[in-house]
């Protein structure tokens, strides 16, 4: 079988493909063969050029040079339509959802079922249910995409690519927003696709997953393809070494609190409810403590953070800050006045002003601090944001670049650095390492711990349960919008397993 | 009882004398001071003779005026006084549909059916009861231009401020200008600017004109609003007196400007008395009296030397005897 | 398998969504119904069939243009040049009739001119990437200049009786202009709501990049909306020319603002991606009813301005409030 | 540690960015320079100081309004009511002068009225969430209705000579209206480019949700732009009233479209988050120079329409092209 495969032409053949944005050389000449009917993974640090490579293949970005062959024949891409015609579809790292359209409409975007130009809505809905069943998810077909969680939106993108049923499917970090069960389902689908002869390219920062599913792995560093080897030639540490040029060690080593936790809670919340999402949730967090919130996708974790951060005017509950009862925040501004800040999960739409430079995005909550007499001093701004971003390993020389031109991971660093610049009392972080490379992930987790050590109360939501277990002093678990468990750090068994068990506990209950 | 009024069509307009007079007044724009005096005229007659009337302001939108007419037809107004936004487009409405529904139509200044560049009996459109006016006809504009030519013998550089294309006043003003250009070769038009009738626009156009033509000696404007822009521009350029301003319009502002020497001459506009005469014509017709098709002498006070039915030229000399009807 | 919350919450959520949807739709419809009721109360002949016919036929050109504008605005576009295309349509249609062309040919050529105007707009906007506002402001100026030059700044007066048919004739006792308006509205609504083309427009307006990445020919689709809008404007111009038996190039100056207003009052956002023809139709009716009522009651025009402005803002505020409640 | 690629590329990138920035700026500036050169060639008195003074003072009201509009549009807003506020400003200012008020008090009250108008717009838009287009279309109608009622549809003619000073007086041989325009432009540019307030406006326009989450008082900030815009419009009205010694409520009908056009020609997007006062100033100058040239040459008004539309589109296309090249 392997000999047979070897005789087939590679599904994709890149010869000296490169890309520069202005003078920034995002991708130095890349030469790569992707074997047909295989899963080929690309790994590398943030900004290494993975998305750029996929973007070129998908026709989103026009290459600055080089040849591309697909299925043995040379193609001129540079337009998504031509890429589709050549049998390539992609799931992009940055969501490409049409917010006002329904879930079904989003899945069938550009590939509508129709008879004589008239939409075949029923057929699409039927197919939609087939596809969701295949991935083991439940998404209301008629729900407006903007009302869906990021996870569900990500799922729609995956469904869209599945529906396209192309010969070549590119997955750019498809799992970042997904919980373990959906990830498993996705991997199963990917294996099925491979078995059916499709060629898959898979980009992820989760090296375990990469090692688990792929047939070959290419490592990128600084816009250069370092090496490509079949899966058996790789181990995790060799991957890390190739990515970074050094050994990283375990990123998930436990980070305990620096000093014994005591004193009154910095924040305590009682009976927090948001109709339709969460009900009667109470918790508290002390200064210097990291509280993790565990749960499955759709369990209400983001809703809880949003409610506490004043983003859900319909929410209700009672709140104490430093032991004093305060009014429930109904606007983000009110929450900010209470010392609460949120790092949202959707950085593109809620976090960053993409057209403004990174420095402005860091100093956004308080331009006043870099503006003596109300006049913005650019040097102060650069200096102060350089200090804030450095903690996250962000290169200060990129502070002047519009944040929209940074790689996904670097955007996330800018977003987090904002709250190192303007310190809140209570920091809520939703999916802080979404799309972050292993090296930076460790930096971010360290910085979050450092936030706590400097006396902030930190609440973290992450679908990477390992992260929560590594970082949190305590974990509360949500399921179906209710609080179902409370795991203390002194319970030695704080582990992914335990969190998952409590999260599933409720469901098991229902099935019994 | 029924009274038949001949409006120049095969079928007369039949008036049911049982029905009281219900008058609709259609004006082109309510924010123009001249038009305000049209309203005043009708108001005065209504108070005097005790009939009801409503004002429909088209805000310079002819489609809107036509819609208002359609609405008025439906609402049973039995007589109209019309100042058209644009005569050609209301033609069908005022000469066919209104008489067909037994509505008497009188024009108080402003003609219909492309007659704005005509004179005398031709100002009347068959289907309507009467036309009152004569001060916005080519003849009227020609009179002021002739006055400018007569006052200033020898070669003259003339700047013109007129309205937008297709506007009825513009059409008759342009016709007068064409004739003047032929008859008075010394009257050299060096710049013609189409403005939107607003003083700011005219101020701007005047400045530009003065800059491009430093030897300009005369300016003629189609209406007082033109002078309202031109005079301050001349003042700013220090050219008062050097460039002589002639206009049509005869408003209160014009009177003050004549007295101060800012403008040389204007024509009498009598929209109030025209409106009164139009209302009177309707009342007369309803009483079975014969009404002239064209009323050029609407009964306004004559300026010394003015012949009834002819345009009155108002100058510094006779301004004391002229009573403006518009602010 | 997962999302058991979602499963559990589903029926409630759907129930709520339905209710909200209904309230949303009815937000604006309720405004219209109340307005009609108030009109009938203040002005008893309001619901007289003739008055309804007047209202509809008077607003047929505006309604037709608004349909084209809805398509443009759903793709996040903007077309200020409809007034010029409308005037050009009226002028050309009348001029050809004066020149003795058959009405069919004259109509076809007029619509073709609207199409070309739209194509020019679309090309400037999607290929040369000029902001739709400036692009269509510029073409407004060019198109009206050309129409004025073509007509030598004079009206074309048509004496032929059949010419007046489109604007003034009736079929089954309903004015033909109303039939045309109804046809354009129905077709527009169907196209937007039921066809692949319509769905693609929403996608482009909602997220142009996503639509492009999904392989939609976005530039072509956006151009097509300007083309349709230009054709609608020319058709509107034909109706008004026929209604007045005259075509002249200085009409339609308020058409752009009016048609955009109608669409936006209907709830279509300037930011694209949402809106619908039926919403624009309701926006049209709110404006039309208000105008007719105030004119029928012969309200002083200055007060009309104040009243109309207030009611329009209040109506849209109510609609906005209804939507925000979801 | 990460992104060493980026680090390496940085110095060059900055160099290039500067170059690109310059080209971008010069894209529009070059258009203006060419236009001026052509004007001087076709019309030798064009660069005469008096002509320049004329151009600037004539366009001072428009320029002032455009500064306010720039702020509004950077926050993704829209203000159609500037024409009405402008007319109301002219009317009120003249009426108070006629009533014998001192100019200072009359001016203060006029600006206050602009402020209130802006506050009303801002409140409707940010608090009741009405689309800016409809909101300001509605308030346009209300404000002009009120101004007309206040003035009883008649002009206020001011005989007091000092009243004419703002519009016609000079200081250091430069018209006072030009000084005012220059002051508003400079302050506007400084505020936008250098202050916390200005930077916040860009953030709101770029991503309102992100700005709100970061704790900026977005509703208040957006309201403030309408307030500034209203004050600018009233100030423009004062200048025109003073220039003509007349205040009447029917002026300014093209002010909204003209000022938006100036801003957009300057390259400020309707989608918010970008733009600047100096860009709007160049947009203003392009329009002003073009108008002056065509009028000075006394080009037939129909041809003017065609020429102006074409040049404006071409200028913006060139600018768009220059920007897309980065
Ligand atoms: N539109 C753009 N303009 C300028 N630079 C860009 C643009 N898009 C990407 N880049 C740069 O190209 C480089 C490669 O980016 P790319 O998105 O391919 O990285 P990546 O490997 O996918 O990183 P991540 O893991 O963070 O997603 C980065 O330095 C990035 O800043
Ligand atoms: N304002 C709202 N009104 C109604 N339903 C909502 C609202 N906000 C969220 N939901 C729904 O509530 C559920 C919980 O959403 P939430 O985003 O809080 O989950 P989550 O646990 O954070 O999941 P994820 O990891 O995907 O973000 C989802 O099904 C979501 O669609
Ligand atoms: Mg990437
Ligand atoms: Mg979440």
From TrEMBL, chain A:
Cited Pfam families: ABC_tran
Q: Which Gene3D superfamilies match?
A: P-loop containing nucleotide triphosphate hydrolases
**Family annotation (InterPro entries):** AAA+_ATPase, ABC_carbohydrate_import_ATPase, ABC_transporter-like_ATP-bd, ABC_transporter-like_CS, P-loop_NTPase
**Keywords linked to the UniProt accession:** ATP-binding, Membrane, Nucleotide-binding, Plasmid, Repeat, Sugar transport, Transport
> Which SUPFAM superfamilies does this entry report, sorted A to Z?
P-loop containing nucleoside triphosphate hydrolases
Provide the ABC transporter domain boundaries.
12-247, 246-505
Under the heading SMART domains, the entry gives: AAA (SM00382)
State which residue ranges cross the membrane. none
GO molecular-function terms, A-Z: ATP binding; ATP hydrolysis activity
Record family assignment: Belongs to the ABC transporter superfamily.
Q: Please state what the protein is called.
A: Predicted MglA, ABC-type sugar transport system, ATPase component MglA
What organism does the UniProt record list as the source? Sinorhizobium fredii (strain NBRC 101917 / NGR234)
UniProtKB/TrEMBL annotation, chains C, D:
Keyword Transmembrane helix assigned to the entry: answer is: yes
What is the annotated localization of this protein? Cell membrane
Keyword Endoplasmic reticulum on entry: no
Coiled coil stretches, renumbered: none
Q: Which residues cross the membrane?
A: 23-43, 55-73, 80-98, 104-126, 133-151, 171-192, 226-245, 251-270, 277-299, 305-322
Molecular function GO terms recorded: transmembrane transporter activity
What superkingdom heads the lineage? Bacteria
Q: What is the lineage of its organism?
A: Bacteria, Pseudomonadati, Pseudomonadota, Alphaproteobacteria, Hyphomicrobiales
Where's it mainly located?
membrane
Q: Which InterPro entries match?
A: ABC_transp_permease (IPR001851)
Q: Which UniProt keywords apply?
A: Cell membrane, Membrane, Plasmid, Transmembrane, Transmembrane helix
- Please name the source species: Sinorhizobium fredii (strain NBRC 101917 / NGR234)
Q: State the annotated membrane topology for this chain.
A: Multi-pass membrane protein
Can you name this protein? Predicted AraH, Ribose/xylose/arabinose/galactoside ABC-type transport system, permease components AraH
GO CC annotations on file: plasma membrane
């Amino acid at each position: 079988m392997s000999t047979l495969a070897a005789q087939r032409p590679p599904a994709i053949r890149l010869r000296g493909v490169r890309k520069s944005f202005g003078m920034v050389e995002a991708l130095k000449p890349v030469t790569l063969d992707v074997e047909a009917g295989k899963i080929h993974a690309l790994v590398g640090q943030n900004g290494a050029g993975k998305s750029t490579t996929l973007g070129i293949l998908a026709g989103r970005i026009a290459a600055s040079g080089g040849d591309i062959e697909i299925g043995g024949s040379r193609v001129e891409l540079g337009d998504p339509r031509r890429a589709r015609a050549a049998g390539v579809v992609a799931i992009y790292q940055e969501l490409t959802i049409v917010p006002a359209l329904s879930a079904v409409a989003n899945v069938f975007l550009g590939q509508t079922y129709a008879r004589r130009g008239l939409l075949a809505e029923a057929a699409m809905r039927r197919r939609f249910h087939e596809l969701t069943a295949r991935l083991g998810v439940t998404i209301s077909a008629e729900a407006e995409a903007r009302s869906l969680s990021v996870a569900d939106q990500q799922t729609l993108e995956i469904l869209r690519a599945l529906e396209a049923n192309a010969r070549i499917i590119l997955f750019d970090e498809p799992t970042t927003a997904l919980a373990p069960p959906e990830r498993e389902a996705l991997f199963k689908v990917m294996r099925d696709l491979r078995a059916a002869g499709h060629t898959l390219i898979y980009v992820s920062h989760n090296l375990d997953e990469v090692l688990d599913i792929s047939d070959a792995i290419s490592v990128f560093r600084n816009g250069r393809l370092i090496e490509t080897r079949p899966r058996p030639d790789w181990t995790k540490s060799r991957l890390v070494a190739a990515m970074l040029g050094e050994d990283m060690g375990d990123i998930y080593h436990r980070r305990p609190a620096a000093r014994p936790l005591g004193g009154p809670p910095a924040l305590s919340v009682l009976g927090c409810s948001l109709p339709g999402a969460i009900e009667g949730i109470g918790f508290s967090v002390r200064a210097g403590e990291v509280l993790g919130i565990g749960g499955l996708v759709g369990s209400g974790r983001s809703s809880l953070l949003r409610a506490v951060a004043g983003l859900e005017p319909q929410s209700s509950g009672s709140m104490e800050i430093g032991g004093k009862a305060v009014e429930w925040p109904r606007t983000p501004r009110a929450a900010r006045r209470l010392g609460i800040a949120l790092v949202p999960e959707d950085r593109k739409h809620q976090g960053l002003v993409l057209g403004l430079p990174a420095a402005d995005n860091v100093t956004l909550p308080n331009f006043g601090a870099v503006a003596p007499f109300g006049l913005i001093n650019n040097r102060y701004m650069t200096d102060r944001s350089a200090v804030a971003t450095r903690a996250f390993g962000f290169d200060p020389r990129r502070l002047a670049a519009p944040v929209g031109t940074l790689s996904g991971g670097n955007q996330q660093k800018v977003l987090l650095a904002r709250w190192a610049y303007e310190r809140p009392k209570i920091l809520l972080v939703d999916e802080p390492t979404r799309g972050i490379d292993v090296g930076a992930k460790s930096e971010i987790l360290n910085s979050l711990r450092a936030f706590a050590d400097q006396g902030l109360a930190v609440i973290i939501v992450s679908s990477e349960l390992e992260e929560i277990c590594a970082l949190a002093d305590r974990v509360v678990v949500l399921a179906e919008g209710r609080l179902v468990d409370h795991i203390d750090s002194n319970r030695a068994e704080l582990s992914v397993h335990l969190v998952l068990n409590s999260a599933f506990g409720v469901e098991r209950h229902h099935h019994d | 009882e029924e009274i038949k009024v001949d409006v120049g069509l095969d079928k007369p307009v039949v008036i049911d004398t049982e029905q009281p007079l219900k008058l609709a007044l259609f004006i082109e724009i309510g924010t123009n001071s001249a038009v305000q005096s049209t309203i005043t005229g009708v108001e005065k007659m209504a108070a005097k003779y005790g009939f009801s009337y409503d004002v429909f302001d088209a805000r310079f939108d002819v489609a809107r005026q036509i819609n208002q007419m359609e609405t008025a037809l439906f609402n049973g107004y039995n007589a109209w006084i019309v100042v058209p936004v644009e005569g050609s487009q209301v033609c069908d409405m005022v000469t066919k549909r209104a008489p067909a529904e037994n509505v008497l139509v009188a024009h108080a200044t402003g003609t219909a059916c492309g007659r704005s560049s005509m004179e005398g009996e031709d100002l009347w459109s068959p289907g309507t009861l009467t036309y009152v006016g004569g001060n916005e006809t080519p003849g009227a504009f020609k009179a002021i231009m002739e006055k400018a030519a007569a006052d200033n013998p020898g070669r003259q550089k003339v700047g013109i401020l007129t309205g937008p294309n297709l506007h009825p006043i513009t059409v008759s003003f342009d016709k007068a200008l064409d004739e003047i250009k032929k008859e008075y070769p010394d009257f050299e038009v060096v710049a013609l600017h189409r403005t939107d009738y607003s003083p700011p626009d005219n101020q701007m156009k005047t400045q530009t004109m003065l800059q491009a033509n430093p030897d300009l000696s005369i300016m003629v404007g189609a209406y007082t609003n033109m002078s309202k822009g031109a005079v301050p521009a001349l003042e700013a350029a220090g050219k008062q007196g050097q460039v002589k301003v002639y206009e049509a319009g005869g408003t209160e502002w014009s009177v003050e400007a004549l007295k101060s020497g800012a403008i040389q001459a204007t024509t009498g506009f009598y929209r109030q008395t025209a409106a009164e005469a139009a209302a009177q014509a309707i009342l007369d017709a309803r009483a079975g009296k014969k009404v002239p098709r064209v009323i050029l002498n609407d009964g306004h006070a004559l300026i010394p030397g003015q012949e009834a039915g002819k345009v009155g030229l108002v100058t510094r000399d006779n301004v004391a005897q002229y009573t403006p009807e518009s602010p | 398998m997962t999302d058991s919350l979602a499963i559990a919450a589903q029926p409630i959520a759907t129930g709520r969504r339905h209710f909200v949807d209904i309230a949303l739709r009815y937000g604006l419809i309720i405004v219209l119904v109340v307005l009609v009721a108030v009109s009938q109360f203040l002005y008893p002949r309001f619901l007289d069939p003739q008055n309804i016919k007047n209202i509809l036929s008077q607003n047929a050109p505006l309604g037709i243009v608004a349909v084209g504008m809805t398509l443009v605005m759903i793709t996040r576009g903007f077309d200020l040049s409809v007034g010029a295309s409308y005037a050009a349509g009226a002028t050309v249609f009348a001029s050809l009739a004066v020149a003795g062309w058959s009405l069919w040919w004259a109509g076809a050529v007029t619509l073709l001119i609207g199409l070309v105007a739209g194509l020019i707009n679309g090309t400037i906007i999607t290929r040369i990437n000029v902001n739709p506002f400036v692009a269509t402001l510029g073409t407004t100026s060019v198109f009206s200049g050309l129409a004025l030059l073509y007509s030598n700044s004079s009206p074309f007066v048509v004496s032929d009786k059949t010419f007046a048919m489109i604007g003034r004739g009736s079929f089954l006792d309903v004015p033909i202009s109303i039939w045309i308006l109804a046809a354009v509205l129905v077709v527009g609504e169907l196209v937007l709501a039921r066809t692949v083309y319509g769905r693609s427009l929403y996608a482009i307006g909602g997220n142009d990049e996503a639509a492009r990445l999904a392989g939609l020919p976005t530039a072509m689709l956006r151009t097509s909306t300007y083309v349709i809008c230009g054709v609608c404007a020319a058709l509107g111009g034909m109706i008004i020319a026929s209604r007045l038996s005259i075509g002249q190039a200085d009409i339609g100056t308020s058409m752009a603002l009016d048609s955009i207003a109608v669409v936006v009052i209907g709830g279509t956002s300037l930011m694209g991606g949402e809106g619908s023809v039926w919403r624009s139709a309701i926006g049209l009716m709110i404006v039309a009813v208000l105008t007719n009522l105030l004119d029928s009651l012969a309200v002083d025009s200055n007060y009309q301005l104040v009243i109309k402005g207030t009611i329009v803002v209040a109506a849209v505020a109510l609609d906005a409030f209804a939507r925000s409640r979801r």
